[in-house]
């Protein structure tokens, strides 16, 4: 398993393949003194950092083409996967200051991507929900992202692509139970 996992995560873009992170023989010598578990984590750390940088860069370019920043995308993403959310609970679990969060909501409202309304049960509660226009934008962003990922990962053999999908699916509950995923899980519960 270690061998194909390293192979999957060592897969690089055409440009990066010309300048590999670390040759296999060099990596083996470099990692000889470490336990197999440490070696796995080192390989994962190096390659995940590489992929996150490239995928985030591509994602940011897609968002910029739609005049959306990353914070606004995450707000739309959360709203697109549920009903209206109270601003207070959303902002509490969001890694933005309240003024910054409100500013991003205001920008999304001005573009008619979200709406803000008073709660029906408690008029003090301010709810935020995604509009039809916002859902269309999220659909467009998702199609663009999927097209990119398909072009990126279709270079892997089908079995390895399937194995990678299984690993990422298995990691999702672990992530949701971690402190990183807690905020998102709490938002979706409400």
**CATH-defined fold name of the largest domain:** Arc Repressor Mutant, subunit A
Q: Identify the CATH architecture of the largest domain.
A: Orthogonal Bundle
Question: What is the N-to-C order of secondary-structure elements (H for helix, E for strand)?
Answer: HHHHHEHHEEHHH
Strand order of the largest sheet: 1-3-2
**Termini Cα gap:** 40 Å
Return the average pLDDT rounded to an integer: 76
- Rg from Cα: 20 Å
Total number of domains: 2
Structural class label? mainly alpha
- The tally of strands reads 3
Q: Largest sheet, if any?
A: 3 strands, antiparallel
Jot down its keywords.
10 helices; disordered N terminus; globular; 2 domains; Arc Repressor Mutant, subunit A; 3 strands; mainly alpha; three-stranded antiparallel β-sheet; 6% strand; 190 residues
Structure write-up:
With 190 residues, this protein is mainly alpha-helical. The protein has two domains: 1-65, no CATH class; 70-190, Arc Repressor Mutant, subunit A (Orthogonal Bundle), CATH 1.10.10. 71% of the residues lie in helices and 6% in strands. It contains ten helices and three strands. The protein has helices spanning 2-10, 14-18, 24-31, 36-65, 70-80, 87-92, 98-110, 132-153, 158-177, 179-189; strands at 85-86, 114-118, 126-130. Strands 1-3-2 form a three-stranded antiparallel sheet. Helix 1 runs parallel beside helix 4 (36-65). The longest helix has 30 residues, at 36-65. The radius of gyration is 20 Å and the shape is globular. The chain starts with a helix and ends with a helix. Mean pLDDT is 76; it is low at 1-27.
């Amino acid at each position: 398993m270690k061998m194909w996992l390293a192979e999957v995560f060592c897969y690089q873009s055409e440009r990066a393949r010309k300048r590999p992170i670390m040759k296999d023989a060099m990596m083996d010598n470099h990692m000889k003194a470490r336990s197999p578990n440490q070696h796995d984590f080192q390989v994962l750390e190096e390659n995940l950092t590489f992929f996150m940088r490239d995928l985030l860069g591509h994602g940011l370019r897609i968002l910029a083409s739609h005049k959306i920043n990353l914070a606004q995308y995450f707000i739309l993403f959360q709203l697109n996967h549920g009903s209206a959310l109270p601003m207070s609970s959303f902002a509490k679990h969001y890694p933005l200051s309240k003024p910054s969060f409100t500013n991003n909501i205001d920008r999304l409202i001005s573009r008619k991507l979200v709406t803000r309304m008073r709660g029906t049960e408690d008029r003090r509660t301010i709810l935020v929900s995604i509009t039809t226009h916002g859902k269309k934008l999220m659909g467009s962003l998702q199609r663009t992202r999927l097209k990119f990922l398909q072009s990126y990962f279709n270079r892997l053999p089908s079995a390895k692509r399937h194995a990678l999908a299984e690993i990422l699916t298995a990691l999702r509950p672990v992530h949701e139970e971690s402190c990183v995923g807690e905020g998102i899980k709490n938002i979706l519960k409400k």
